[in-house]
Amino acid sequence: LGDLSIPFLRELDLLEPFGLGNPKPLFLTRKLSLKKPPAFPTRDRLQLWVEGDSVTLEANWFRPRMLPEELEKGIDLVYSPVLKNFYGQESPSLEVKDLKLSE
Fold this sequence. Notes:
By secondary structure, the chain is mostly beta strands.
């Protein structure tokens, strides 16, 4: 997660437009831990705060397949990194595509 800097995410955006013939890049990070308990800010979005490489990032999973109680252990994430802009403040964030419990 430490490599997902704002300059790197801006360079990744140069690969747009994403679509059927040019899918968004997917990344895999193994053995992440949860920094905060999972939350459901909306009915169909699970919000996680994951930690790896001494970095904590927000990860959003839309229409999740697992319940938060199942996420007590470490997790492996497949995600697309995104550059989140909240009131002019940019920060890296993760758009979760799949998740499994670490072994």
